[in-house]
């Protein structure tokens, strides 16, 4: 059956790109509600923004959704990954500004908060998107593909000049608590050489060495170093799960990303939904649901470092 939180949970921090204070509250919602954001700082007009693939508008270095009235919320990928990874299908996310708080740069604080409140089952069945045949998108920089699979399988490849990152590859079956155990604590990262350029564009104004892994050639400049030797590719997979969650339902398919990012994953969802014979909606029985992220996880599964 579909799920929601048992009780609200609030997170305080600041936006990674805006640098502005941000308060976010995830509230329980009824069956068939889905995931929606509500801007509490806007008092008139349409303040509700759907967390759905066709509400995404292009934005550098993060995922940004916008409603028909032009109201937006950005940097939603980590909280969306946490909800998907914990198997939460319905929630209303209230936020007092245009950007989700970055917290420690990973999804682990959101996961810990969600699991501290617990998940409640609702009265409607879970529907999943079953991929029936491959769909793919490609740019000059990389590619992404979805193909049939019994659960959600993810392969990711990255390649950076900085030796602290270099070439990394990882493959995971994201069933049950894999996301929580393997990906949730991996932080966003950047190259030191990119920081000034981003800030000149009004980006990364809230970035610190504590909420992002900053590398410079072979060096990791953030205190404490890496949480995982391959933290960078793990974070890219975290982002991809958050962006795939904008499909509006769990995906039964094999996602492959080669130097892919937020924009490419969203393009892939556009390609999927514009290809009617490439997918179908299926009701999830207990066997199918056990192949999805978030089934039977416990708070103690969150990595201790987070």
Average residue pLDDT: 92
Task: For the record, give the distance between the C-alpha atoms at the N and C termini, rounded to a whole number.
Answer: 30 Å
SSE succession = EEEEEEEEHEHEEEEEEHEHEEHEHEH
Nearest-angstrom radius of gyration? 18 Å
* CATH architecture field of the largest domain: 2-Layer Sandwich
What's the number of helices?
A: 7
List keywords for this structure.
Ribosomal Protein S5, domain 2; 306 residues; lpxc deacetylase, domain 1; 7 helices; 5-stranded mixed sheet; 2 domains; 21% helix
Structural summary, described in words:
This protein is α+β, with helices and mostly antiparallel strands and 306 residues long. It has two domains: 3-121, Ribosomal Protein S5, domain 2 (2-Layer Sandwich), CATH 3.30.230; 127-294, 2-Layer Sandwich (lpxc deacetylase, domain 1). Helix content is 21%, strand content 30%. The protein contains seven helices and 20 strands. The chain has helices at 77-85, 108-117, 178-183, 192-200, 231-244, 262-273, 286-289; strands at residues 3-5, 9-14, 21-27, 35-39, 48-50, 56-57, 64-66, 72-74, 91-95, 119-121, 127-131, 135-138, 143-147, 152-159, 167-173, 189-191, 213-216, 219-220, 251-258, 279-283. Strands 11, 12, 13, 14, 15, 19 and 20 form a seven-stranded mixed β-sheet that branches. A five-stranded mixed β-sheet has the order 2-3-9-4-5, with helices on one face. A hairpin with a 2-residue loop joins strand 17 (213-216) and strand 18. Helix 1 (77-85) crosses helix 2 and helix 1 (77-85) crosses helix 5 (231-244). It is globular, with a radius of gyration of 18 Å.
């Amino acid at each position: 059956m579909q799920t929601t939180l048992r009780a609200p949970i609030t997170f305080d921090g600041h936006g990674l790109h805006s640098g502005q204070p941000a308060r976010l509250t995830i509230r329980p919602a009824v069956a068939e509600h889905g995931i929606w954001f509500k801007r509490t700082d806007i008092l008139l007009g349409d303040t509700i923004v759907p967390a759905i693939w066709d509400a995404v508008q292009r934005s550098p270095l993060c995922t940004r959704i916008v409603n028909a009235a032009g109201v937006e919320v950005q940097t939603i990928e980590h909280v969306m990954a946490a909800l998907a990874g914990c198997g939460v299908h319905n929630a209303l996310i209230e936020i007092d500004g245009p950007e989700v708080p970055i917290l420690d740069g990973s999804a682990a604080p959101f996961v810990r908060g969600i699991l501290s409140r617990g998940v409640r089952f609702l009265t409607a069945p879970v529907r999943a998107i079953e991929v029936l045949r491959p769909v793919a998108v490609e740019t000059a920089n990389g590619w992404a593909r979805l193909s049939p699979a019994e659960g959600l399988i993810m392969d990711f490849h990255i390649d950076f000049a900085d030796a602290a990152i270099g070439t990394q590859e990882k493959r995971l079956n994201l069933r049950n608590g894999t996301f929580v155990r393997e990906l949730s604590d991996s932080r966003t990262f950047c190259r030191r050489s990119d920081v000034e350029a981003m800030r000149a564009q009004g980006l990364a104004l809230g970035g610190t060495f504590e909420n992002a892994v900053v590398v410079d050639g072979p060096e990791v400049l953030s205190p404490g170093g890496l949480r995982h030797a391959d933290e960078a590719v793990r974070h890219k997979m975290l982002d991809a799960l958050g962006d795939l969650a904008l499909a509006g339902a769990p995906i039964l398919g094999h996602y492959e990303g080669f130097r892919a990012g937020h924009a490419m994953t969203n393009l892939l969802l556009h390609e999927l939904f514009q290809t009617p014979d490439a997918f179908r909606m299926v009701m999830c029985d207990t066997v199918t649901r056990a192949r999805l992220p978030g089934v039977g996880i416990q708070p103690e599964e969150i990595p201790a470092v987070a």
